[in-house]
Specification:
Strand content: 15-25%
CATH superfamily of the largest domain: Glycogen Phosphorylase B
Distance between the termini: 30 Å
Number of strands: 13
Number of helices: 14
Number of domains: 2
CATH class of the largest domain: Alpha Beta
CATH architecture of the largest domain: 3-Layer(aba) Sandwich
Strand order of the largest sheet: 3-2-1-4-5-6-7
Radius of gyration: 22 Å
Length: 382
């Protein structure tokens, strides 16, 4: 079925699964925009066809799925190896440590002349198991693999904790967002209409967090920080809006904490929203309380719509934030530090220029520039 395709580098992306997440969303953007004259992409998923983003893979990308019977089921190796041979795959891109294990096993069994790229979207391990995966991964590297990272801090951190020599790392390719989509609001009316929908006054200060309810996103810490901000601030018209789904138990716990602090009317759990632009447009400040983050796509989206960001100093946050110009960096794990960061950003709002904040993303983290770099890198023409 692929014999009549124009000659291009045949690249196989291997993913563990395709949930709704930053790395997976970025992969969909990448697959949609790759230059098919240079690269013919294939996707092999170890998840299932029912994964939310699996069906979002573009129609012109050949996709295959081989669900594992259990997490460490290595039986899909045979299918991956056969695909590499039958489709004459030249480059394999592993989406994380885990998928590299499969390629490592295949290459131990078959002598294949392929280029192996490991595209890492993780930095700090979220738990011991993830640390062990990274440590074992580092010991398995032969030296011929190309490790791509998304920011300088990520590279330094991984090199240090897993004892990977710096020379083993290849390029740094910053994440990018579609700045033609994530724009400044066209008019103020949509902002006011959405605020009215959520019962937020017209001139209130709205802090927004867009993140799945997962342990490392620390919604509990943000609720505590908002309580401290509310006690210290002279303003009562400050609201915190959480957007996203995820672990129901974590969400329930955050809601219970908000009730405990008598802040149910000030902390809004907006759930999953189809139009995130409108959510950003109704807000004044974007924030993350994460204890594990690499290079946040959500933060780039928010800043592309003109929002200053208050981020914990995790991953590449310090590489996207210019302190007091487009946001504030605070130390992680501290509700007091986060509350102080919000307070400082609120004080700076009158002096911050939304257009300048957006232009910083357009200049440095534009998706088009990012995709062009991937086109060159994956095709071997950089």
């Amino acid at each position: 079925m692929t014999d009549n395709m124009p000659k291009s580098v045949r690249v196989l992306f291997i993913v563990a699964r395709m949930p709704v997440g930053g790395a997976e969303t970025f992969l969909i953007s990448l697959l949609n925009r790759l230059d098919k004259n240079l690269i013919q992409p294939f996707v092999f998923s170890l998840g299932s066809e029912g994964d939310p983003l699996y069906q979002k893979i573009p129609q012109d990308v050949f996709k295959y799925v081989r669900a594992r019977k259990w997490r460490y089921d290595l039986s899909p190796c045979e299918s991956i190896g056969s695909l590499i041979v039958s489709e004459k795959i030249q480059t394999v891109v592993c989406s994380d440590y885990f998928t590299y294990f499969y390629i490592w096993k295949i290459l131990r069994k078959q002598k294949l002349n392929i280029r192996v790229i490991i595209l890492l979207h993780v930095t700090k391990p979220r738990h011991l198991k993830e640390f062990l995966h990274g440590f074992i991964f580092a010991r398995m590297l032969s030296g011929s693999e190309e490790i791509l990272t998304t920011c300088e801090n990520q590279r330094k951190f991984l090199s240090r904790i897993f004892m990977i020599p710096q020379k083993r790392f290849a390029e740094i390719i910053y994440n990018g967002v579609d700045t033609n989509y994530w724009t400044l609001p066209a008019d103020s009316q949509r902002r006011l209409d959405l605020r009215k929908q959520f019962g937020i006054p017209e001139n209130a200060i709205v802090i927004i967090n867009v993140a799945g309810f997962r342990k490392e996103k620390r919604h509990d810490l943000m609720v505590k920080a908002f309580h401290e901000l509310y006690l210290k601030s002279s303003r009562e018209d400050i609201y915190l809006v959480f957007v996203g789904g995820g672990d129901r138990q974590i969400q329930d716990s955050a809601q219970q904490l908000a009730r405990q602090y008598n802040l149910s009317g000030k902390i809004i759990f907006a759930g999953i929203q189809d139009d995130l632009r409108s959510m950003y447009w109704m807000a004044d400040i974007f924030t993350l309380g994460s204890t594990s983050e690499t290079f946040s796509i959500a933060a780039l989206e928010a800043m592309s719509t003109g929002l200053p960001s208050v981020l914990t100093d995790i991953g590449g946050a310090s590489e996207m934030i210019q302190t007091n110009i487009n946001g504030v960096i605070v130390k992680p794990y501290s509700s007091q530090a986060l509350a102080s960061g919000w307070m400082k950003c609120i004080e700076l709002l009158p002096s911050m220029d939304n257009s300048d904040i957006r232009n910083g993303v357009v200049d440095r983290f534009n998706l088009n520039n990012c995709i062009q770099y991937y086109n060159r890198y994956l095709s071997g023409s950089n």
